[in-house]
Write a structure and sequence with these properties.
Blueprint: H1 2-12, E1 20-23, E2 29-36, E3 39-46, E4 49-56
Antiparallel strand pairs: 1-2, 2-3, 3-4
């Protein structure tokens, strides 16, 4: 979840990532994100089978600049974490 949030944050603020991939903990789901000709794209697969083919990603806004193109690489940062939830009884 944290890595997905980071990707969305970078997308919104105009950063470009080149062929980045996220996988679920068990490796079954794979999400790839890439900038092609300044346009953000993504694809999703499950067990190496395409669920969502390469698709454009962006926002078309009425009152301001379009968020459909014009992206560029500024920085790539990776991190991982392991989080376990335990119920609180009492």
């Amino acid at each position: 979840m944290k890595q997905t949030t980071l990707l969305l944050f970078l997308l919104i603020f105009g950063c470009q990532l080149q062929a980045q991939e996220l996988q679920s903990p068990d490796g079954r789901f794979s999400l790839s994100f890439e900038i092609l000709s300044g346009k953000p794209t993504y694809a999703l697969s499950l067990d190496n089978q395409t669920i969502i083919a390469r698709s454009k990603l962006g926002l078309e806004l009425k009152s301001t600049t379009s968020l459909m193109e014009g992206f560029a690489v500024k920085n790539i940062e990776r991190s991982t974490f392991d989080e376990t939830w335990e119920p609180v009884w009492g």
